[in-house]
Amino acid sequence: MPPRMRLIVDENVPDSVADFLKSRGHTVMLVREHFGQMTPDEFIAWVGDIHESVVVTFDRDFKQLVS
Questions:
Q1: CA triplet 62, 14, 23: central angle to 5 degrees?
Q2: Distance in angstroms (rounded) separating the CA atoms of residues 4 and 33
Q3: Which of 12, 57, 58, 66 is in the most buried spot, having the most CB atoms within 10 Å?
Q4: What is the rounded distance in angstroms from the CA atom of residue 14 to the CA atom of residue 19?
């Protein structure tokens, strides 16, 4: 069985991407469903860190948070 990932999908990522990841058995948390729209990037990154999850986003601002 392939490894499964825990993913946090940002609101700017299409639902089809989240659906695809779910169909592959990954655990997917949608930002807009769990935290609401316009959730600050810093909070999403913090939740990802706490839950040892990968953040999936198209937001280029996350590069600044990585460093």
A1: 105
A2: 21
A3: 57
A4: 9
Query: Is the pLDDT assigned to residue 36 strictly greater than 90?
Result: no
In this prediction the pTM is: 0.87
Distances in Å between the Cα of 36 and the Cα atoms of 7, 12, 17, 39 are 17, 12, 18, 6
Query: DSSP code of 7?
Result: E
Q: Edge-to-edge strand order for the sheet containing 6-9?
A: 27-30, 6-9, 54-56
Tokens found for residue 15: 């639902």
Q: Across all residues in the chain, what is the average pLDDT?
A: 92
Token pair recorded at residue 19: 């659906």
What pLDDT score was predicted for residue 64? 84
DSSP assignment letter at 56: E
- Residue ranges of domains in the chain: 6-66
What pLDDT does residue 67 have? 62
